[in-house]
Amino acid sequence: DVKVTQSSRYLVKRTGEKVFLECVQDMDHENMFWYRQDPGLGLRLIYFSYDVKMKEKGDIPEGYSVSREKKERFSLILESASTNQTSMYLCASRRGGSHDEQFFGPGTRLTVL
Amino acid sequence: EDKVVQSPLSLVVHEGDTVTLNCSYEVTNFRSLLWYKQEKKAPTFLFMLTSSGIEKKSGRLSSILDKKELSSILNITATQTGDSAIYLCAGGSSNTGKLIFGQGTTLQVKP
């Protein structure tokens, strides 16, 4: 079974803190994605990576950065957390060169106070 | 701008009812339409549709794509309380490889 894990299910941070969200997949997938999910807005793509060291901006990259140093790990970084970044963050992975389904992690619910 | 719209946004039914969830899309270089089910955890994949008019079925769930109408439906027959979830629809683009998600439909099935 494909497994995508995220470092925390719940996280509470203060405004201005630097926040790291980690995602690890065990299926040797090349492609990895970070989304945020907000009520009424669905999932919105923040950043994605087609392979190690590669990154592409998604639809809402402002206030975020990412790191992909190893194939299995994709990190989302909030350089200076703000209250409007309170959200559910979902990571996903997919086999490279395909249009197959994406496999999702359980999500991290981040609250910024 | 690419977009995917789902309707209704929420739905409450009783066990045994049949429900139909709708998804319409405007996706540049459209390639596929995907359905996911999300309970209080990771969204899980249900169906991927690429050809118009061919129904995909899994137990009580079925889905079909209409490329002429740029839409898809997800049917659930004989609903059970375990079907309560958010159902997500996403359109895939062949040139970007990205998925564009709709807002989701929240389904509540009452005993």
How much of the sequence of chain A is in beta strands?
Answer: over 45%
Q: Which second-level CATH architecture of chain A applies?
A: Sandwich
Per DSSP, the total helix count of chain A is 0
Annotated CATH topology of chain B: Immunoglobulin-like
CATH class of chain B, named: Mainly Beta
**How many strands, what sense, and barrel or not for the largest sheet of chain B?**
6 strands, mixed
Low-confidence stretches of chain A: none
Largest interface: A-B, 22 and 24 residues
Helix and strand run of chain A: EEEEEEEEEEE
Order of helices and strands of chain B: EEEEEEEEEEE
The number of distinct structural domains of chain B comes to 1
**Tally of individual helices of chain B:** 0
CATH class descriptor of chain A: Mainly Beta
Structural class of chain A: mainly beta
Main beta-sheet strand count, sense and barrel state of chain A: 7 strands, mixed
CATH-derived topology of chain A: Immunoglobulin-like
